[in-house]
Amino acid sequence: MSTYTAIRDGIVTTLKTVTNIGVVHGRERYNADWSKYLNDFKTTIQGREQIRGWTVTRERFSDAPNTFWEYARQHTF
Questions:
Q1: 30 contacts: CB under 8 Å, gap ≥ 6
Q2: pLDDT (tens digit per residue) in 33-77
Q3: Do 41 and 23 form a contact (C-beta atoms < 8 A)?
Q4: d(Cα 57, Cα 54) in Å, to the nearest integer?
Q5: Would you tell me how many other CB atoms lie within 10 Å of the CB of residue 61?
Q6: How many angstroms separate the first and last alpha carbons of the chain?
Q7: Which of 4, 16, 28, 52 falls between 20 and 30 A from 42, CA-CA?
Q8: At 8, is the secondary structure helix, strand, or coil?
Q9: Beta strand pairing status for 23-25 and 53-55?
Q10: pTM (2 decimals)?
């Protein structure tokens, strides 16, 4: 059974293989300073600085009993 962090890290790793995707974060990013916040998503593509940022977040999860009353957690990203 995969854990939440293993699934999330797998998604982040896969997204980072996409050409010119920009910056990928495995969690929400927060900062009180707007310019510092934007720097978290800034990347240089073909010599031009751009804002291209992605966050991978879990939308919800559920525990459902399967055969033999073991619980299987389902994560939705």
A1: 37
A2: 999 999 999 999 999 999 999 999 988 888 877 777 777 778 888
A3: yes
A4: 10
A5: 11
A6: 17
A7: 4
A8: helix
A9: parallel
A10: 0.77
